[in-house]
């Protein structure tokens, strides 16, 4: 088992920067998820750790050892590809044993490891099949099995669930979480799906435009996003954003005006002055129930989605801002009618004009 | 065949397997007619003719397999037949090894990731296949002509001047030279087909093999080669059919007599001579048909070996 | 990205350039020398024609002694008419075989497949006999009929695969509107298969244009020669006149060269699109 650390990593193709100044430490046994929109560089980052792409600058360490110059096979990693990348002309058994052939493992040991992995993944009955004779879920398990037999220090997953249908995706997600428990290995997992990220990760790394936006535990990112991008990316439905303006500043207290309401909050005390515009973020589930000190926001209902356990009310506030409210499943509201959202000041997030949170401190990233 | 307007409606089309709607007949007839009359009928009729012989009056009568017996055993025929067959096998062997070997090599180079100018190389190397075999034959005849002296001078320039000889004129080298001219012209075809197969292999698969610890040679041997085997099979059978049906190049370069001393005679030229005659021998449609039928049998054997012996084992992989 | 140029890549390019030179050299040599005087052809075969050595005497002789323009027109007629018929008739058959399920569908498909593997050339004895009986010897019609029969099977295969990829909804929508099957073929399918025509053209036009065999046995004279046969006959006659030989070869090569370089993108795409399965 091993930790992985990246120091000052950058990657560019010609004039295009794919990744910039990536610093990150993945502890031994941790399950880290790289998440971000497509094109954010997360897959490239994973391929760099695997050794499939060279870096332009920076250092990669696995288990404390610099591996920049090592070929993938010598990095003690194993990778599960989005397309599974099973060798179509080899049986399941041979697919799993293929990598061991080059590691000069003796036959009995190869056999033991393949059968053991097959046992874990319930593939024992399928060892003689060819990949094309397997279902999508089975292929997925073979791809994982091929990684397991290599007994790697670090598992790398590149969007492994994106080719599965919704039901299978949930099952396999749970299987992967269990596998992590059993093996206790370091795992790095790339996805664009924030639900996968939230459910699997012990630590999430949010990437955007080749930069790390924020690193943290799932709930930490959910509760304390450090900028507009993370706030908008994590959570579904998306956080509501409402334009606001600074009314008064006094030390660490701030008075804000938005959507016809006014509230006082505490903030980090950065350079904000009266008249600065800010963005207020509120999650849909923090806007339904009236309570102590809540602010009422009136608006017109555009649409209602009833999911059973909850209803999403799409409404337009007097000020023209569109918001989504997660109300109870049986809330009495109809399209075109008036509705009042209730917002607790404690739950709001405030971002300055540059999109940075004025409440969450951006910690210097670990390792530096 | 009864049909009505209703049969053109979707429900009917999906279910009317048992009926034969008139529009299907309209769509199929022109193709089936031309194809049957000018392709299948002549082939069948050629086989029939091979069982007949003509007498002095020109009348034809059924003789069974006598023509084949003549072809295979009568020294006046069999010497030429076996010679042509042997030459044709050499012609084919040289194509398989040299043409498909170079084609594979070029395809490997062209499929390297992020190769600059790959498209230009492919276009230019494929160019000779576009030209007529006849033209190519003359081009090389001129280049190899000792009178012009281009080939010997070029060889001298690289210090191999002593190797030059009238390659097309010597019995010992004419067939090999002609084969290599044909190889030169058609390398582009295996190159393109194999290239297409190689770039169809997903990059992920090669990455997976790299992570698995396979080096470039192992990746070729254990991953890429097995995956392009079906294409190599197709290339082989295409080469086989084309080679056992070849005629133009040898006719253009060496004439119907395929000299010197029949050393470049292959089945195609032998067929032509048998059918149309040459010098003192008169042509014989029935013996021509016999040679054609023999060629047909040889090609069919090759195709059958491919279909049942090779293709079945080389299942096309879906990615 | 500051990727250093790997020495192995330089070797790859060297190998590819070397082979490209081998592939093009002989052709360029012919084109180059066709415009030189006889003396220059022999004295400096690798040199470019200059003011002193430039001449078109070879071309003058070719045009004076043979009917190149006519042969070219013959080839063009045969190729274009054959291709047109192959595409139209082939598309009709491919449409029928892929769209409609009827008894005999598979058998007809297999029947057509014979023509892909077995060269029609082997039926020449009977073809010639038939053309004699039909009084079609030394006509372009004979060539066109044979070439259409030769090209149809592969065209049906390629077009069939292509038609299968046209979304079903398109035809079903038309049927719901009450459009007849003929109209569906004519106004929906035919316009949509245009990309596949390029592929069919690669596999049928080139062999037709370049063929020597059928012109040789079916229309060897009467001014019905194709360009390939014309060049072959001309060179056989004037084999010692180097200027004329080189000029006639150039005349045969040049149009193909121009067409190829213009359309190579489509052609190469057609070839690598996996048309041969």
Automatic annotation (TrEMBL), chain A:
Q: Which residues form the ABC transporter domain?
A: 4-234
UniProt-listed Pfam families: ABC_tran, OB_MalK
Which GO terms of the molecular function aspect are on file? ATP binding
Does the keyword Nucleotidyltransferase belong to this entry?
Answer: no
Which key words tag this protein in UniProt?
ATP-binding, Cell inner membrane, Cell membrane, Membrane, Nucleotide-binding, Transport
Q: SUPFAM superfamilies per the record?
A: MOP-like, P-loop containing nucleoside triphosphate hydrolases
Record-stated family: Belongs to the ABC transporter superfamily.
Its recorded name reads: Sn-glycerol-3-phosphate ABC transporter ATP-binding protein UgpC
- Gene name, per UniProt, is ugpC
TrEMBL record, chain B:
Compartment list: Cell membrane
Identify the keywords attached in UniProt to this record, alphabetized. Answer: Cell membrane, Membrane, Transmembrane, Transmembrane helix, Transport
A matching Pfam family:
BPD_transp_1
Family matches, as InterPro entries: ABC_transporter_permease, MetI-like, MetI-like_sf
TM ranges:
20-44, 89-112, 124-144, 150-168, 175-199, 219-244, 256-275, 287-309
**CDD domains noted in UniProt:** TM_PBP2
Domain ABC transmembrane type-1, which positions? 85-308
SUPFAM superfamilies (alphabetical): MetI-like
Annotated membrane topology? Multi-pass membrane protein
What is the protein's major site of localization?
Answer: membrane
Tell me the domain of life: Bacteria
What family does the entry list?
A: Belongs to the binding-protein-dependent transport system permease family.
Instruction: Please identify the protein, giving its name as recorded.
Output: Sugar ABC transporter permease
Which species does the entry assign this protein to?
Microvirga puerhi
UniProtKB/TrEMBL annotation, chain C:
InterPro entries attached to this UniProt entry: MetI-like, MetI-like_sf
Residues crossing the lipid bilayer are: 12-35, 71-96, 108-128, 140-163, 184-209, 244-263
Provide the ABC transmembrane type-1 domain boundaries. 72-263
**Cell location:** Cell membrane
Its main subcellular localisation, reduced to a broad class, is: membrane
Which keywords has UniProt assigned to this entry? Cell membrane, Membrane, Transmembrane, Transmembrane helix, Transport
Membrane topology summary: Multi-pass membrane protein
Q: Which Gene3D superfamilies match?
A: MetI-like (1.10.3720.10)
Specify whether Repeat is a keyword of the entry. Answer: no
The family classification in the record reads: Belongs to the binding-protein-dependent transport system permease family.
Record-linked PANTHER family: ABC TRANSPORTER PERMEASE PROTEIN MG189-RELATED (PTHR43744:SF12), ABC TRANSPORTER PERMEASE PROTEIN MG189-RELATED-RELATED (PTHR43744)
Tell me what this protein is called: Carbohydrate ABC transporter permease
Q: Give the organism the record lists.
A: Microvirga puerhi
């Amino acid at each position: 088992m091993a930790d992985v650390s990246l120091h000052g990593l950058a990657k560019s193709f010609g004039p295009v920067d794919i990744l910039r100044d990536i610093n990150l430490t993945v502890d031994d046994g941790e399950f880290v998820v790289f998440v971000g929109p497509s094109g954010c560089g997360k897959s490239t980052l994973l391929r760099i750790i695997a050794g499939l792409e060279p870096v332009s600058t920076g250092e990669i360490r696995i288990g404390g050892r610099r591996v920049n110059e090592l070929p993938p096979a010598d990095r003690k990693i194993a990778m599960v590809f989005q397309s599974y990348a099973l060798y179509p002309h080899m049986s399941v058994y041979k697919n799993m044993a293929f990598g061991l052939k080059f590691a000069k493992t003796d036959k009995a040991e190869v056999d033991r490891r393949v059968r053991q992995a097959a046992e874990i993944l319930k593939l024992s009955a399928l060892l003689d099949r060819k990949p094309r004779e397997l279902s999508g879920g089975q292929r997925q398990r073979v791809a994982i099995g091929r990684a397991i037999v290599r007994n790697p220090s670090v598992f790398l997953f590149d969007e492994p669930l994106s080719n599965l249908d919704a039901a299978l995706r949930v099952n396999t997600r749970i299987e992967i979480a269990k596998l992590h428990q059993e093996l206790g290995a370091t795992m790095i997992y790339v996805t664009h799906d924030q639900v996968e990220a939230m459910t699997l990760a012990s630590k999430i790394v949010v990437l955007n435009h080749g930069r790390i936006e924020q690193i943290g535990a799932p709930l930490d990112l959910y509760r304390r996003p450090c900028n507009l991008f993370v706030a908008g990316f994590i959570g579904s439905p998306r956080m509501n954003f409402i334009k606001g303006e600074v009314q008064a500043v006094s030390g660490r207290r701030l008075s804000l005006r938005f959507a016809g309401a006014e509230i006082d909050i505490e903030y980090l005390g950065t350079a904000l002055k009266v008249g600065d515009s800010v963005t207020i973020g509120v999650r849909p589930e923090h806007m339904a129930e009236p309570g102590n000190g809540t602010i009422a926001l009136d608006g017109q209902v555009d649409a209602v989605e009833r999911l059973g356990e909850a209803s999403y009310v799409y409404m337009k506030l007097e000020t023209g801002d569109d918001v989504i409210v997660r109300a109870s499943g049986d809330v009495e509201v109809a399209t075109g009618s008036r509705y009042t959202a209730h917002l607790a000041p404690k739950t709001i997030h405030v971002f300055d004009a540059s999109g940075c949170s004025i409440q969450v401190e951006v910690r210097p990233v670990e390792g530096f | 065949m009864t049909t009505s307007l209703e049969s053109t409606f979707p429900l009917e089309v999906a279910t009317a397997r048992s009926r034969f709607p008139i529009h299907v007949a309209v769509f199929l007839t022109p193709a089936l007619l031309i194809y049957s009359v000018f392709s299948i009928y002549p082939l069948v009729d050629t086989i029939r003719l091979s069982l007949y012989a003509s007498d002095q009056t020109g009348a034809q009568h059924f003789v069974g397999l006598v023509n084949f017996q003549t072809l295979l055993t009568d020294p006046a025929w069999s010497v030429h037949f076996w010679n042509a067959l042997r030459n044709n096998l050499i012609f084919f062997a040289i194509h398989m090894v040299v043409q498909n070997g170079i084609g594979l090599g070029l395809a490997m180079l062209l499929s390297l990731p992020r190769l600059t100018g790959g498209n230009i190389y492919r276009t230019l190397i494929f160019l000779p296949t576009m030209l007529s075999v006849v033209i190519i034959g003359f081009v090389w005849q001129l280049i190899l002509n000792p009178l012009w002296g281009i080939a010997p001078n070029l060889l001298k320039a690289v210090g191999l001047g002593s190797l030059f000889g009238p390659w097309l004129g010597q019995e010992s080298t004419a067939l090999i030279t002609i084969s290599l001219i044909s190889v030169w012209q058609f390398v582009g075809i295996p190159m393109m087909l194999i290239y297409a197969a190689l770039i169809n292999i997903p990059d992920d698969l090669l990455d997976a093999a790299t992570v698995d610890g396979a080096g470039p040679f192992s990746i070729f041997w254990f991953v890429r080669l097995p995956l392009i085997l079906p294409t190599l099979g197709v290339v082989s059978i295409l080469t086989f059919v084309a080679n056992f049906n070849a005629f133009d190049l040898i006719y253009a370069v060496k004439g119907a007599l395929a000299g010197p001393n029949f050393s470049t005679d292959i089945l195609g030229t032998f067929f032509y001579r048998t059918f149309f005659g040459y010098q003192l021998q008169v042509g014989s449609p029935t013996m021509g048909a016999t040679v054609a039928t023999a060629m047909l049998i040889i090609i069919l054997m090759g195709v059958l070996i491919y279909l049942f012996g090779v293709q079945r084992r080389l299942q096309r992989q879906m990615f | 990205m500051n990727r250093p140029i790997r020495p192995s890549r330089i070797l790859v390019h060297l190998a590819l350039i070397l082979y490209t030179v081998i592939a093009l050299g002989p052709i360029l040599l012919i084109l180059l020398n066709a415009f030189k005087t006889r003396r220059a052809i022999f004295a400096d075969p690798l040199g470019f024609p200059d003011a002193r050595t430039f001449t078109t005497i070879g071309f003058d002789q070719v045009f004076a002694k043979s009917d190149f323009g006519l042969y070219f027109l013959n080839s063009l007629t045969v190729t274009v008419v054959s291709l047109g018929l192959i595409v139209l008739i082939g598309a009709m058959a491919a449409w029928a075989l892929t769209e409609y399920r009827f008894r005999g569908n598979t058998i007809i498909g297999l029947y057509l497949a014979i023509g892909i593997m077995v060269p029609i050339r082997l039926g020449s004895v009977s073809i010639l006999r038939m053309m004699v009986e039909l009084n079609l010897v030394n006509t372009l019609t004979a060539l066109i009929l044979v070439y259409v029969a030769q090209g149809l099977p592969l065209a049906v295969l390629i077009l069939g695969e292509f038609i299968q990829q046209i979304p079903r909804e398109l035809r079903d929508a038309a049927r719901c509107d009450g459009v007849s099957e003929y109209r569906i073929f004519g106004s929906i399918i035919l316009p949509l298969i245009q990309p596949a025509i390029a592929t069919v053209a690669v596999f049928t036009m080139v062999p037709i244009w370049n063929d020597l065999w059928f012109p040789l046995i079916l229309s060897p004279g009467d001014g019905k020669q194709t360009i390939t046969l014309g060049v072959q006959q001309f060179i056989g006659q004037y084999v010692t006149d180097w200027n004329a030989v080189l000029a006639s070869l150039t005349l045969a090569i040049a149009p193909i060269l121009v067409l190829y370089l213009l359309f190579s993108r489509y052609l190469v795409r057609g070839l690598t699109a996996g048309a041969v399965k």
